[in-house]
From TrEMBL:
Catalyzes the GTP-dependent ribosomal translocation step during translation elongation. During this step, the ribosome changes from the pre-translocational (PRE) to the post-translocational (POST) state as the newly formed A-site-bound peptidyl-tRNA and P-site-bound deacylated tRNA move to the P and E sites, respectively. Catalyzes the coordinated movement of the two tRNA molecules, the mRNA and conformational changes in the ribosome. This is Elongation factor G. GTP binds at residues 19-26, 83-87, 137-140. It comes from Streptomyces capitiformicae. Residues 667-690 are annotated as: Disordered. Keywords: Cytoplasm, Elongation factor, GTP-binding, Nucleotide-binding, Protein biosynthesis. Belongs to the TRAFAC class translation factor GTPase superfamily. Classic translation factor GTPase family. EF-G/EF-2 subfamily. Its main location: cytoplasm. It holds the Pfam family EFG_C.
Length: 690
């Protein structure tokens, strides 16, 4: 290992660690810090001594809740690493992190293989085009099997897994790996932190040669240069394999698979070498794209270019308000003035910090490719673009998922009401997936988030950080409404005359169910088109009608829930030479669609989740009965090593308190995970309750 201070861009790696909860992401991060000499003692999740899980709630619960950034040096390369949460309730933290990363390590449990949240974060990385390598962890566990884990990667994630290591020993006897590229053995003796390199053991030589051949054939099928060499030489050199694996990883055509046991510190150094060898630097990814005055522009990853940076996380600490930035181009220095491209307001950089989780080292400057935190920004939020005032550029912000669960919160003491409002405002500022609002009917303050645990963590943070006693109401889910049978030819005239210029708009709408709706209440849950001919409704008024229809979708006729899955067609209309305006047609669109929905057959949709329950075989009957009582629909049941893994789709409203019920039915031996699965029609009993 060779450490260096000055890192050119091609020696920088910005990566994240992704996985299902409890697959070992945080332990891998801790071993990285230890192996690179950044820390001098191995942090353990179960002891609450990790660097990245520094929040009291993370240490109490033993899970990662908040994405934490750390930096280390390995073999002359600077590695900026983000340890992301694995629990589904905190998927938005993963989304914001992936938006600014160049590569990732996906960690899989060698016993469980691809788990539900593993698949979810993999799909998130697919959407962002983030190259990945895979690390099959916990090979020292009973029942660990590298081949079955790799097969689950092939079947469920669909990349070409390119396995570059062969384990030496199994379960408790796992002591090292065979490097199939160099055909050398790496063995970690008990108590040793470094591997001893030697020849491949005789007992594994034939198997190692078979697997090396299989790797060469898989690479040759995918990489034309490797194919030419393979056809000519009937084999591939280590250098050709390395180069081809790098190309395939960065193109997303294959995923390099390594293995080890992070807890026992076995396989970490080869994983660090793979990060350097295969994952891209900021120079290897496409130039960042943004807009300025409606025109697309690119900025190269170059310290000499004008500044463009994206804020992806905001947190309040004892040292001030920290804003985490990924710099895509340019340079920032302490005291610089930067432009918020969204609000067009300028901000001043007070201090620049290199972040080590909850510890910071001050920097004089940061350059393209860096991930740093800054102090001094007053209004920047997650998703804010910061750029040079003389060269504005607006970058696409990370997407924010709609919340699905809500609770009412109020201060136990009336004198703390204002303090609670301040605390909620800061929570929402730090976590955009939280929404705080006042219910217009009850006057209650409602906090909405991505799940029961998400809201539990938020409320506990109010209690711990702000010292407030808070009363919390029963969780409620976020329902949606949709059109089952629409109306055609609805005529609506908006006429208003009260002195001076009046308002006139005449529209005719067809409303029908949207066949291709994604069912999740997102932006694709609404479609609008115009078939008006002859210029009877000018184009600017057509856009105003669409905007008015979107306004109407905020509240549906059944219970005031957002409406999704609707297709609206503007078929005709009329204007007035003086009284027609965009405002008049927007109002007409809103009121016309509201009237159309009142005349349509509407249905209530409720959020559902895919639930994976792992239970002892002797408890299966009781668990299946309980799932049926919760309106669950079982989709699969697989026996695995003395346990049974049950997969079901269950309404989210029925999952509140399920953890306690499952523990009682299985004497504490059952576990479950959930993953959002969109929306499904609610039964009439639920509709009538609303």
């Amino acid at each position: 290992m060779r450490n260096t201070i000055h890192n050119p861009l091609n020696a920088v790696r910005n990566l994240g660690i992704l996985a299902h909860v409890d697959a070992g992401k945080t332990t891998v991060t801790e071993r990285f810090l230890y192996a690179t000499g950044t820390t001098h003692k191995r942090g353990e999740v179960h002891d609450g001594t990790t660097v990245t899980d520094f929040d009291p709630q993370e240490r109490d619960r033993g899970i990662t809740i908040f994405a934490a950034a750390v930096s280390c040096d390995w073999d002359g390369h600077r590695i900026n690493l983000i340890d992301t949460p694995g629990h589904v309730d905190f998927a938005d933290e993963v989304e914001r992190s992936l938006r600014v990363l160049d590569g990732a390590i996906a960690v899989f449990d060698a016993v469980a293989g691809v788990e539900p949240q593993s698949e979810s974060v993999w799909r998130q990385a697919d959407r962002h085009g983030v190259p990945r390598i895979a690390f099959v962890n916990k090979l020292d566990r009973s029942g660990a099997d590298l081949d079955s884990a790799v097969e689950s990667i092939r079947e469920r994630l669909h990349p070409a897994p390119l396995v570059v290591q062969l384990p030496i020993g199994a379960e408790d006897g796992f002591t090292g790996v065979v490097d199939l590229l160099r055909m050398r053995a790496l063995v970690w003796a008990d108590g040793s932190d470094t591997a001893e390199e030697g020849p491949v053991p005789d007992a594994l030589r034939d198997e190692a040669e078979r697997r090396r051949r299989r790797l060469e054939e898989a690479v040759a099928e995918l990489h034309p240069v490797a194919l030419d060499e393979f056809c000519a030489e009937s084999t591939l050199s280590a250098d050709t394999l390395t180069s081809a694996l790098r190309d395939l990883t960065r193109a997303g055509e294959g995923v390099v698979v390594l293995c080890g046991s992070a807890y026992r510190n076995r396989g970490i150094e080869p994983l660090l070498d793979a990060v350097v060898a295969y994952l891209p630097s900021p120079l290897d990814v496409p130039a960042v794209r943004g807009t300025h005055d409606g025109t697309d522009e690119e900025r190269a990853a170059d310290a000499g270019e004008p500044l463009s940076a994206l804020a992806f996380k905001v947190s309040a600490t004892a040292t001030g308000r920290l804003t985490y930035l990924r710099l895509y181009s340019g340079t920032i220095r302490k005291g610089d003035t930067v432009l918020d491209a969204g609000t067009r307001r300028t901000e001043r950089i007070g201090r620049i910090l290199r972040v080590q989780a909850d510890r910071h080292a001050e920097l004089d400057r940061a350059v393209a490719g860096d991930i740093v935190a800054v102090i001094g920004l007053k209004s920047a939020r997650a998703g804010t673009t910061l750029c040079a005032p003389a060269a504005p550029l607006l970058l696409e912000p990370p997407s924010v998922a709609d919340p699905v669960v809500s609770v009412a919160v109020e201060a136990r003491r009336s004198t703390d009401t204002d303090r609670l409002a301040t605390a909620l405002a800061r929570l929402v500022e730090e976590d955009p997936s939280l929404v705080a609002r006042t219910d217009p009917e009850t006057g209650q303050t409602v906090l909405s988030g991505m799940g029961e645990l998400h809201l539990e963590v938020a409320v506990e943070k109010i209690r711990q950080t702000y010292g407030l006693e808070v009363a919390v109401g029963r969780p409620r889910v976020a329902y949606r409404e949709t059109v089952v049978r629409g109306v055609s030819g609805l005529v609506f005239r908006h006429v208003k005359q009260d002195g001076g210029a009046g308002q006139f708009a005449h529209v005719v709408l067809d409303v029908e169910p949207l066949e291709e709706a994604d069912g999740d209440g997102g932006a694709t849950g609404f479609a609008f088109r115009s078939t008006v001919v002859g210029g009877r409704v000018p184009q600017e008024y057509v856009r105003a009608v669409e905007a008015g229809c979107r306004d109407a979708l905020v509240e549906g006729p059944l219970g005031g829930h957002p409406v999704t899955g609707v297709s609206v067609t503007l078929t005709d209309g009329a204007t007035h030479s003086k009284d027609s305006s965009e405002m008049a047609f927007r109002t007409a669109g809103r009121l016309a669609l509201r009237e159309a929905m009142r005349g349509s057959a509407m249905a209530l949709l409720e959020p559902v989740a895919d639930v994976t329950v792992t239970v002892p075989a002797d408890a299966v009957g009781g668990v299946l009965g309980d799932l049926a009582a919760r309106r669950g629909r079982v989709t699969d049941s697989v026996a695995r090593g003395g346990s049974v893994v049950i997969t079901a789709t269950v309404p989210l409203a029925e999952l509140f308190g399920y953890a306690t019920r499952l523990r009682s039915r299985t004497q504490g031996r059952g576990t479950f995970t959930t993953r959002p699965a969109g929306y499904a029609p609610a039964p009439s009993a639920v509709t009538s309750d609303r």
